[in-house]
Amino acid sequence: MAQERVGLYPGTFDPITLGHTDIIWRATRLVDRLVIAVAINRDKGPMFTLEERLAMVAEETEGLGQAHGCVIEVRPFENLLTQLADEVGAGMVIRGLRGVTDLDYEYQMVGMNTRLNPKVETVFLTASHEYQFIAARLVREIARMNGDVSAFVPDRVVKRLRRKLTGGN
Ligand code: ADP
Is residue 152 part of a domain? Predict the structure, then answer.
């Protein structure tokens, strides 16, 4: 049997957007197992707790890989991505590219990650045109100002944002 192809898709997912789910769905065509790694914390505190972000990602990706025979796993991560890749047996890291601004940062990351772990390739999937402008940061800003984010995130996430911003759980 050919060796299992494992992909690693890291991010903050604060919250998961339709841009993320599109990349995830497309990535399931490329690998047998896709590990979605939810960053514990980045720079400043995220709007959603790690548990909430893990739950949202798990909910929105359930069964998403079935059509392509891909198993999706969701887990938290805090340490180096290159270490995690070894830990989960991933040969590729998957990233979404929205445009030149993403590219600049990603290019540098790939350079450093390749030095840290040359066995892991980074594979970029360009954003689908209908989701190209979606960024979790903007979704949070719009939601905070009571704007309609239903074109950018799944329905359950719209509800979670509403609950979060009105002081519910
Ligand atoms: P980061 O903080 O690294 O950008 P995110 O959770 O925002 O983490 O995103 C994780 C990955 O998903 C990154 O590779 C990012 O470029 C990609 N991504 C985010 N939004 C979109 C989108 N709308 N279309 C395609 N890729 C996206």
Answer: no
32 in contact with ligand 1, CB cutoff 6 A: no
pLDDT digits (tens, 9 = 90+) for 36-87: 999 997 677 899 999 999 999 999 999 999 999 999 999 999 989 999 999 9
Tell me the torsion sign for CA atoms 122, 3, 74, 125: positive
Alpha helices in the chain (DSSP H): 18-27, 50-61, 81-88, 100-116, 136-144, 155-165
Q: Are 107 and 113 in contact (CB under 8 A)?
A: no
Which residue range(s) make up the domain with 31? 6-132
Task: List the structure tokens of 42.
Answer: 């980045």
Q: For ligand 1, what atom is nearest to the CA of residue 96?
A: 26
- CATH number of residue 115's parent domain: 3.40.50.620
Is 95 a member of any domain?
yes
